[in-house]
Design goal:
The complex is a heterodimer.
Chain A: E1 15-24, E2 27-37, E3 41-46, H1 53-60, E4 68-73, H2 84-87, E5 88-91, H3 103-113, H4 118-127, H5 143-155, E6 161-164, H6 173-188, E7 192-197, H7 200-204, E8 209-214, E9 217-223, H8 224-231, E10 234-239, H9 243-252, E11 257-260, E12 263-266, H10 271-280, E13 287-292, H11 295-313
Helix pairs in contact in A: 3-4, 4-5
Chain B: H1 2-12, H2 15-37, H3 53-56, H4 61-82, H5 85-91, H6 95-131, H7 144-169, H8 172-189, H9 195-204, H10 206-212, H11 225-249
Classes of the chains: A alpha/beta, B mainly alpha.
Pfam family, one (chain B): ABC2_membrane_4
Protein name (chain B): ABC transporter permease subunit
Keywords (chain B): Membrane, Transmembrane, Transmembrane helix
Chain lengths: 314, 252
Amino acid sequence: MSVLLADPTTSPPGVHARALTKWYGNTVVVDRLSFTVRPGAVTGFLGPNGAGKSTTLRMLLGLTRPTQGAITIGGQHIADLPDPARTVGALLDARAVHPHRSAFDHLLVFAQAAGLGRRRVEQVLDLVGLTDAGRRRAGEFSLGMHQRLGIATALLGDPGVLVLDEPLNGLDPEGIRWMRSLMRNLAAEGRTILFSSHLMSEMELTADDLVVIDRGRLVAESSLAEFVQTHTAQAVMVSAPDLDGLARALGRARIAFESAGHGLRVTGADTTEVGRVAAAEGIALDELGRVRESLEDVFLRLTHDVTDHESRAA
Amino acid sequence: MNLLRSEWTKLRSVRSTWIAALSTVAAGVALSVLGASDLLAAAQSGLPDGWDPTAASLKGFLFAQLVIGMLGALAVTAEYGTGMIGTSLTTTPSRSRLLAAKTTVVAAVALATGLATTLLSFTAVQLLLGGAGLPVAGTGDPGVAGALVAATLYLTLVALIGLAVGTLTRSSTGSLAVLVGVLLLVPAIAPALPGALGDAFARYWPTTAGQAAYTVVPVDGALAPGLGSGLLTVAAVAAVAAAHVALRTRDV
């Protein structure tokens, strides 16, 4: 893939939210949200449905006005950027195309607004694999083709910052793989990639960094690795033919455990220690290994906690 | 310049623009011819006082104005309907510049459409009247050229009012309802209001005033042509200004 930045010497700007707040009537949709998105990485913007992700992205793109606070691109509001179309590209709703307009003309509209021509339209069509469908009306497109057209639109200005709202939503496995590797490649070129999702599973293979929100509030902001380290509870699964003997040995060593399936789930020690206890007691093991809480579980627990906290506070 | 090009691509690349433009011309000409044809049986002596062959040739504007108004409205409501407005405003965050470009391109398309509608309606009806031995108007006759300019301007301004209404309502059906009210219902019904209020509507309602500008023989109680066009222009500018404020201040 050759979508190199026009000028690789200048690093693309990051995205910065500061106490970003949006009220609709008496409802707070985004609540004093602060986070930073760095260039050269794929940042997953994660939250359950209705968490305020789309509203945040719309404020980033200048479509919705914050009630308080700000969200900026390289420190500037999008309307103050000298060349917005070449600085930031966005995919908000892949279906937001006129059904009677051809894909080529749809792209040409935005290319011309950015001071670009037909050549660039052909390039991005090629980039997303829609060259043959360019003259077809967008109304005939499948969801996957819509997503590709949306990505092509976002890439027209060769922007350093890409904002993608639920880009994996509704894609088939092949489409997901394509979108994922595209995002990874774009980030590897140094661009700032911010994509939202309500599914933790979509983050695991795609994101470098995570910004997790729930009910408009920040729940976590870290690298994916750090997030896993901090939030997933570790445990050791162990089993033995003489399970009762193993349980007694762990009890004597004052190691916490519980019975789980055909073995024991140990939370108070690592594999080395459990192995040592078993060896000292001469107990043969038939299974010993680390297990981790799934990220999906962590996500549900974290967003659930915030919900609980809020209802207690209310 | 880039934005004008972009807005022109938006307009030209969907069928609805061309359907609306052709419908304006076709409806204008067909209804003008139809309106003039019941005069054909009348003898020259049977024509009403103040017979104005120019105004009589533009009767089809009654419906054509609604179609060209929708052409203006659709230029913006189609973007709201499809959600494309989000992409437009991300690419061009300056809403003022976007609206200015849209207004310019719609005005240009409407001007061409309005000119075609005016000239074709006028020519067709004059041929018809001449064939029936009735008095006709020629572009060289006093006041006729001015009336035709005013008629073209009328349709162009109505398209801009449509654009403003589309921006304010953000909905095609909403725009249609508003335009039917503004262009057809109010001018038809309001003059029947009692006393000075009815007279004021009959005289100063912007589209009624604009229509007075494309008569050659002055109608009783109507504004002078220059004033009529001026009033409609002010109304169109005010509508676009209101649309501008709304576009700038509202969330998308």
